[in-house]
Write a structure and sequence with these properties.
20% of the residues lie in helices and 30% in strands. The protein is of the alpha+beta class and 429 residues long. The strands form 4 sheets. Strands 1-19-18-14-13-2-8-5-3-4 form a 10-stranded mixed beta sheet. β23 (396-401) and β24 (407-422) form a beta hairpin. The radius of gyration is 22 Å and the shape is globular.
Length: 429
């Protein structure tokens, strides 16, 4: 069963989209119909047929070839070859080209020094080679390597980036995983973990790829193929809800305060004409809507009130132009499957660690719970935060079996507050 839910209308429509695609107007001719995006949250498995097939199916007939941009990776040739092999496995028969754009040498290719490809993004010949390309793929790694290679003088498009935008405006699909997902939005999360993002000042300098796992939040300019929101990736495994909410609080224009957190082995298929996002793969899309939320403080005292969370599963859809969600499953309200007291706390001993499970099993499908509280803290410094999830009158939960007896939840409109706390741990007497 599909359910449509309207939760508001998003500002900034086709004009913003046209700018993101390079300023070309959409014509009735299919050759000039803007294409699509495939945004993968990282750790894409080779057996994820839904994601690979979506990429292949989105390649227009008139531009039958694929180009891989390997610059983000420390092993550019290796990961480009891996993606090429996966495409061939799923039947792609067109030409696959690895663009000579990289900053590090790949030790597996003794005859080629990829670190000499630093200027590839500025090469007009490389740009010209994209004229018959209908699928462009960004491998994972360090997203600042992508923007560094494809922007000149900070934020000016290089010839290759201009060519990518041109192909996207003509119907191509632009996809990417991990770092290749982060660059999709206009504002890009360059570094930081959630706890540091919520308890420390924002960084103004990028110090290295290690800060992707542990360090202060840093924002930068992305490539802006996606006209709405901020993209974050590895969302489930790396617990990035906190850093995404903190990033929303840094947006000066409240209309920009919407975030898309994409789980690993999961993709968003984005229709740029219809402003429609479809979830594919194993995990979830978390939509964090902070446009009506209140943000306060900075540095070590950041707080947020009234962020609206929605969690989408495979097959669910969201339209950023209308604000509508299209979700599958049976509604849990007035039909809750569970009734138990929720332990409010933190730690590995508590169940339902994933966000979809926490908001599904523990909150919206639990007739005895109206709120769930979870804490995160640094035991050395005592700095921490409280995540307070609340079911409201507008909250909706949907349940279905994914495969066999595997539960799958889709959720709309859970309210989230984040508040700073101090934590002291002492042995029990």
């Amino acid at each position: 069963m599909k359910t449509n839910i309207a939760v508001g209308v998003i500002l900034g429509l086709l004009t913003v989209f046209i700018t993101a695609c390079g300023g070309e107007k959409t014509a009735a001719n299919d050759l000039e119909r803007p294409g699509s995006l495939l945004i993968v949250g990282g750790a894409l498995r080779s057996d994820n047929s839904a994601v690979y097939q979506a990429f292949i199916d989105a390649i227009p007939r008139q531009f039958p070839n694929v180009a891989i941009v390997p610059v983000a990776s420390g092993r550019p040739a290796h990961y480009a070859e891996q993606f090429s092999e996966d495409l061939r496995h799923y039947g792609f028969a067109g030409d696959i080209r690895v663009l000579p754009i990289a900053v590090l040498d790949d030790s597996s290719t003794g005859a080629v020094d990829e670190s000499r490809w630093e200027a590839g993004g500025r090469d007009p010949a490389v740009a010209d080679s994209l004229g018959d390309v209908g699928g462009i793929w960004f491998v994972g790694g360090d997203q600042t390597r992508i923007t560094g290679a494809l922007f000149a003088n900070g934020e000016v498009d290089t010839p290759v980036l201009e060519a990518i935008r041109r192909q996207l405006s003509r119907g191509a699909v632009v996809g990417g995983t991990s770092a290749g997902a982060a660059i999709m939005s206009r504002t890009m999360i360059a570094a930081g973990d959630s706890l540091s993002a919520l308890t420390m000042p924002v960084a103004d300098q990028y110090v290295g790829m290690e800060t992707l796992e542990s360090g202060q939040l840093m924002l930068a300019t992305g490539l802006g193929f996606l006209p709405e929101g901020i993209v974050d990736q590895h969302f489930d495994r790396k617990a990035r809800l906190g850093r995404l909410v903190r990033a929303l609080g840094l947006m000066e224009d409240p209309a920009d305060r919407i975030g898309f957190g994409v789980d690993e082995d999961t993709a968003l298929l984005v229709d740029l004409v219809d402003a429609d996002i479809t979830v594919l793969g194993a995990g979830n899309l978390v939509v964090a809507d902070g446009r009506l939320a209140q943000f306060s403080g900075g540095g070590q005292a950041f707080a947020a009130q009234g962020v609206q969370l929605s969690v989408l599963s495979a097959g669910d859809r969201y339209n950023w132009r209308t604000g509508n969600f299209e979700l599958s499953g049976s509604e849990t309200q007035q039909n809750e499957a569970f009734g138990y007291g929720v332990v409010q706390g933190a730690g590995i001993a508590l169940g339902n660690q994933r966000l979809d499970e926490l908001l599904g099993f523990s909150l919206l499908d639990n007739e005895k719970a109206r709120e769930v509280r979870r804490f995160s803290f640094d035991s050395d410094s005592g700095k921490g935060v409280l995540f307070h999830f609340r079911q409201t009158e507008s909250s909706r939960g949907f349940w279905r079996y994914r495969s066999g007896t595997k539960d799958q939840y889709s959720i709309v409109g859970v309210e989230l507050d984040i508040a700073p706390v101090s934590v002291t741990i002492a042995p029990r007497p």
